[in-house]
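HOLO CASE FILE
Compound: zinc ion
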Amino acid sequence: MPELPEVETIRRQLKEVLVGKTISKIEVLRAKSFAGDPKSLIGRKIKDIQRKSKVIEVSFEDHEKMVTVHLKMTGQLVFVDGEMRVSGGHPTADWVNGLHSKHTRVVWTFDDGSKLFFNDMRVFGWMKLVERTQELKNSRYQVPDVIDKDFTEDYLFNSLKKTKKPIKLILLDQNKIGGLGNIYVNDALFMAGVRPERKTDTLEKKEVSKLHKAIVKVINLGIKYGGASASNYVQVSGLGGTYQDHFLVYKREGLKCRDCESKIQKIKLGGRGTFFCPSCQK
Ligand SMILES: [Zn+2]
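Model generated. Tokens follow.
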């Protein structure tokens, strides 16, 4: 599943190439992958590509509707303009091979002949045509994303004070904080020196302050490296981001801590793999 840095990476890349393009055709090859009537978008010019939480939002000039895109487990967006390509999301050979492929679900064609392919092997992802005003009521708008200005130290402190649950579970709760997934939460807790199982009400203000800085830093590192690629695709050379080369504790169980002699341990917390250094994290 792509996390915020992976989604932000493809958003930035698509914004460079899609803004100003006019749609001439939309083919929906799998009904489940596109909600709404795509015909209403013909002749529309793309105004902006934004993101809130892990959802990409495509808006149009003089139009109240927008298209939201969630890549889920295996979704990918590939823009093709002659020899030029922009690929993001789940990294597979479809990033570079001829399209469409058997995983292509939706194809947008622009009036200059360029195309945007939405590929999704397992069909959990979606494109939805929605009213902007309705969409703003969606729960993802009720909390700040970790890279938003309103994700402050105070905001984090107040969200943690209200519960007694393990810190990691609260940080992953998208109804409290937007955009942290399993990779970056493990690494942020390591950077802050806080054990994932610590109960939130035991955290001192000083620790929350350190944690806030660590979260922002780790997410920005993820964006800097273009996100992380799932390990089973790393061998497809050159595909995907490279944050996996910089994991601090995530997927490093049994390996030496980057800061001390201890070995990284793995436990399950809330059903998810959880990684920490027993010496550096308290
Ligand atoms: Zn350590």
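CASE NOTES: The first strand starts at residue 23 and ends at 28. The CA atoms of residues 14 and 149 lie 23 Å apart.
CLOSED: yes
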